[in-house]
């Protein structure tokens, strides 16, 4: 009897052990039970997914996105709705904290604060220093190895030991070099494009208009003293260019480049890229070793040129710890974090589109290589990763306006042209698919894989220049700088101003020198007048751009926005319209912007174009489960924490999506 | 078939083996040891780089040290200057993330910017900033409602052997901290 009992217990234990070893499913199809202990969360920026047009999950099921299909089979999937305002800093904060702006303090990108001047935003919403609650990585910091790549809100770095923070987007920390376009200076062109080309008045302009260098001042000699010589100032490093001809050509159809003014590093024809070349860039008085790569976008007629200079986005002064830069570079090569700039520069010439597409490929390729490298070198427990390039494509000039039927530009292209545009957009999603393939390959059975995005994108038909309206009403007092042509606001004498992204500041006593929130009957009356004026606006089709105007005291309840981070009125626009700060000589209210897509300041609940995909896969998650109703961005962090078997902090606004759990 | 003890063991052994192979977690990235520095006990945490990372609580002040050994004094000086430049960059005027005609640059108001000093310490010198940090212990809190800590960030450069010691000290803004870490910092370790 005793012998039999021992045998039975042993047998039972044996089977239990086998069951434990082999039971359940894992991201790679291995059977296991229990809770994931690791996380890979890929959050590319601006990935639109909805059931009507950007049929992401349908594309996956049709075989166009095989790795996403695999992930969907391994896990649960559905749509997610952004918070308001519907753009990046607010939604990365919502995703990474599980809270609304009223709690996390990220109400926008540029934020003004009472008691400070309105001339400059006081707080940047992409900086980690602006956030009032911890991000999800703080939950892991004590005992897990964390890697954060290109995440808005991750810099200045919060984690030091056992963690990597690489280039948080626009966090205002470290040596962040933007890529630059150099173009032949022309007065007309510069006036037309000047505003968009400026980084800001003190910094490197995103497009620099330059003239050829006289021969006597040109150190770079190629034997053709009549050819145009160029000097490109790239963060203190001089790169020379020289017009050149092919052997049989009479006209200049290429440019030779030199990074030292002596040897020729590359000779490029139109539409070609060079290799990467090392330079020393200057940043805040420091010398930073980096790399550059050039593209000849256009040459001629005459001495016209348009050159794109990419600067390696990875250097030791934009990574914590600094040593990671060279380690990663050895595997991945120089970094192209995302395509183009913001504001976008590759939107003005037909050749810019091809430049954009090839640069976009480089960006996706780098990010795909980085996944392998990060896992190989650092074996992270937590890897949270962003790439901005999808947003750049969908808010560029070249695509959204011509593929979304709700756009006023939809019929500006033929159906065959539209088909080509759709294939280019799908190629971009397939680049994301390739990165997910890398994630799945590198994830082990203990990894929870999550794919999501901050917001989608919709067509932008018209910019609404609210400050022109306010100027016409006499609410803005301004003068025109004779040298620069810029409209300078007299803040003390102005009563109403719109400032990005969705805030109107109102004070009958004036808005300067420091902004003080108004009060009293005069203030209320002026606010109502402003709301009435905007409500009365109609475009050429009779459509009013205003969806809602919310007074600051109501914004916490209605919009989940903190009163301390918003203006006197928050204005929500209808899709198709975007608010603009511009004051112009012509004082027109409605203009057609060059970009054809965007995402700002829209209520996303009923605007499906702003919805995003959400996929979660790992131990304990239902397999091939379609979440029937969209969730919210604030729900993702609590869902992830629950999936990892961790306590969900009480202060989170979002709720775990319980239906995804087995 | 009669089931014997030998059969049971024969069945159990591979099961245990399988359990060990397939259900074993990845080695955790934890492990702390205690290090005494400046007369203070610190806990040492794992680090991804060649730096030594130490942390302690001293009378309510959260103190974090990063010690990096370098090849020579020149490298140490360059490293120090780079780190100070990185810290300073947080407070420089910089581009607005969504630029507009009237939203061009962001700059921390002067009243929230840190002060900067350098002092000699036994065996080297120490350059540091005194300022503020937010709830998540990040420098660059540029409005009153973001400030939760007084924050000292500094870099000590020690010559023999060449080392850098990065020091971060966070003290609750509402607390008075009697102990001055500054008086304890030394290269004699």
Describe this structure in words.
The complex is a heterodimer of chains A (662) and B (189). By secondary structure, chain A is α/β, with parallel strands linked by helices. Helix content of chain A is 26%, strand content 22%. In chain A, strands 1, 2, 5, 6, 16, 17, 18, 29, 30 and 31 form a 10-stranded mixed beta sheet that branches. The longest helix of chain A has 29 residues, at 350-378. Helices cover 19% and strands 40% of the residues of chain B. In chain B, the strands form 2 sheets. Chain B has an 8-stranded antiparallel beta sheet with strand order 1-2-3-4-10-9-8-7, with helices on one face. In chain B, strands 5-6 form a two-stranded antiparallel sheet. In chain B, strand 2 and strand 3 (52-58) form a beta hairpin. At the A-B interface, helix 1 and strand 4 of A face helix 1, helix 2, strand 5 and strand 6 of B.
Q: Gist?
A:
The complex is a heterodimer of chains A (662) and B (189). Chain A is α/β, with parallel strands linked by helices and 662 residues long.
Beginning-to-end CA distance, first to last residue of chain B: 72 Å
Main β sheet profile of chain B: 8 strands, antiparallel
Average pLDDT over all residues of chain B:
84
Mean pLDDT of chain A: 93
> How much of the residues of chain B is beta strand, in percent?
35-45%
Termini distance of chain A?
Answer: 40 Å
Question: Helix/strand/pairing class of chain B, anyone?
Answer: alpha+beta
Greatest contact between two chains: A-B, 99 and 68 residues
Helix count of chain B equals 2
Helical fraction of chain B equals 10-25%
Q: Tally of extended strands of chain B?
A: 10
Assign an overall shape of chain B.
Answer: globular
Spatial arrangement of strands, main beta sheet of chain B: 1-2-3-4-10-9-8-7
Percent in strands of chain A: 15-25%
Total strands of chain A: the figure is 31
Task: Please give the oligomerization state of what you see.
Answer: heterodimer
Query: What class would the helix/strand composition of chain A place it in?
Result: alpha/beta
Q: Using only CA atoms, what is the Rg of chain B?
A: 25 Å
């Amino acid at each position: 009897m005793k012998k039999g009992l021992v045998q039975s217990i042993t047998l039972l234990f044996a089977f239990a052990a086998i069951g434990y070893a082999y039971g359940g499913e894992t991201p790679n199809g291995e059977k296991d039970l229990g809770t994931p202990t690791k996380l890979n969360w890929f959050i590319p920026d601006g990935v639109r997914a909805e059931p009507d047009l950007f049929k992401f999950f349908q594309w996956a099921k049709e075989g166009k996105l095989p790795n996403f299909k695999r992930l969907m089979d391994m896990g649960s999937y559905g749509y997610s709705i952004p918070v308001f305002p519907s753009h990046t800093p607010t939604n990365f904060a919502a995703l990474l904290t599980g809270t609304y702006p009223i709690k996390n303090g990220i109400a926008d990108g540029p934020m003004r604060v009472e008691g400070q001047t309105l001339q400059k935003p006081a707080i940047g919403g992409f900086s980690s220093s602006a956030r009032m609650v911890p991000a999800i990585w703080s939950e892991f910091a004590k005992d897990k190895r964390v890697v954060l790549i290109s995440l808005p809100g991750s810099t200045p770095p919060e984690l030091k030991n056992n963690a990597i923070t690489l280039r948080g987007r626009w966090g205002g920390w470290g040596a962040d070099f933007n890529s630059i376009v150099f173009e032949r200076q022309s007065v007309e062109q510069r006036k037309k494009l000047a505003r968009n080309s400026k980084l800001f008045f003190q910094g490197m302009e995103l497009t620099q208009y330059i003239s050829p260098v006289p021969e006597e001042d040109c150190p770079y000699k190629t034997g053709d003293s009549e050819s145009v010589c160029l000097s490109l100032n790239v963060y203190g490093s001089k790169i020379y260019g020289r017009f050149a001809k092919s052997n049989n050509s009479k006209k200049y159809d290429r440019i030779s480049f030199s990074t030292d003014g002596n040897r020729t590093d590359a000779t490029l024809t139109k539409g070609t890229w060079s290799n990467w070349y090392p330079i020393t860039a200057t940043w805040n008085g420091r010398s930073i070793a980096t790399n550059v790569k050039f593209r000849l976008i256009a040459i001629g007629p005459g001495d016209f040129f348009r050159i794109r200079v990419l600067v390696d986005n990875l250097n030791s002064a934009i990574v914590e710890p600094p040593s990671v830069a060279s380690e990663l570079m050895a595997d991945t090569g120089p970094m192209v974090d995302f395509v183009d700039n913001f504001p976008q520069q590759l939107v003005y010439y037909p050749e810019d589109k091809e430049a954009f597409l090839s640069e976009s490929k480089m960006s996706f390729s780098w990010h795909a290589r980085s996944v392998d490298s990060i896992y190989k070198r650092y074996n992270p427990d937590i890897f949270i990763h962003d790439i901005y390039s999808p947003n750049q494509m969908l808010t560029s000039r070249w695509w959204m306006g011509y593929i979304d039927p709700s756009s006023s530009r939809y019929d500006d292209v033929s159906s065959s042209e539209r088909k080509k545009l759709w294939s280019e957009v799908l190629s971009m999603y397939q680049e994301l698919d390739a990165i997910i393939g890398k994630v799945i390959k590198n994830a082990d059975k203990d990894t929870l894989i999550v794919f999501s995005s901050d917001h989608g994108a919709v067509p932008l038909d018209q910019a609404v220049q609210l400050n022109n309206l306010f100027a016409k009403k006499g609410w803005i007092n301004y003068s025109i700088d004779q040298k620069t042509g810029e409209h300078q606001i007299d803040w003390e004498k102005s009563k109403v101003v719109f400032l990005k992204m969705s805030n109107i500041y109102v004070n009958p006593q004036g808005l300067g020198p420091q902004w003080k929130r108004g009060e009293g009957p005069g203030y209320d009356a002026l606010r109502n007048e402003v709301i009435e004026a905007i409500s009365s606006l109609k475009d050429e089709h009779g459509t009013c751009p205003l969806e809602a105007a919310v007074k600051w005291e109501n914004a916490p309840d209605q919009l989940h926005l903190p009163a301390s981070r918003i203006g006197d009125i928050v204005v929500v626009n209808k899709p198709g319209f975007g608010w603009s700060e511009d004051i112009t000589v012509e004082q027109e209210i409605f203009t057609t912007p060059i970009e054809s897509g965007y995402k700002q300041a829209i209520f996303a609940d009923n605007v499906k174009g702003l919805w995003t995909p959400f996929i979660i896969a790992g131990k304990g998650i239902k397999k091939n489960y379609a979440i029937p109703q969209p969730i919210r961005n604030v729900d993702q962090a609590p869902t992830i924490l629950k999936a990892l078997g961790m306590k969900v902090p009480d202060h989170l606004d979002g709720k775990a999506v319980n239906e995804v759990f087995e | 078939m009669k089931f014997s003890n030998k059969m049971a063991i024969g069945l159990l052994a591979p099961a245990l083996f399988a359990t060990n192979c397939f259900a074993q977690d990845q080695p955790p990235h934890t492990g702390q040891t205690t290090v005494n520095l400046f007369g203070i006990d610190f806990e040492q945490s794992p680090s991804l780089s060649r730096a030594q990372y130490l942390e302690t609580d001293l009378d309510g002040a959260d103190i974090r040290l990063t010690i990096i050994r370098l090849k020579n004094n020149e490298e140490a000086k360059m490293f120090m200057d780079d780190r100070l430049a990185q810290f300073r960059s947080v407070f420089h005027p910089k581009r607005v993330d969504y630029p507009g005609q009237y939203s061009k640059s962001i700059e921390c108001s002067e009243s929230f910017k840190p002060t900067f000093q350098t002092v000699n310490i036994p065996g080297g010198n120490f350059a540091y900033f005194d300022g503020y940090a937010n709830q998540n212990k990040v420098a660059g809190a540029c409005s009153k409602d973001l400030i939760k800590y007084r924050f000292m960030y500094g870099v000590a450069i020690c010559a023999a052997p060449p080392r850098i010691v990065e020091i971060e000290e966070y003290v609750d803004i509402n607390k008075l901290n009697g102990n001055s870490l500054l008086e304890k910092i030394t290269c004699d370790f």
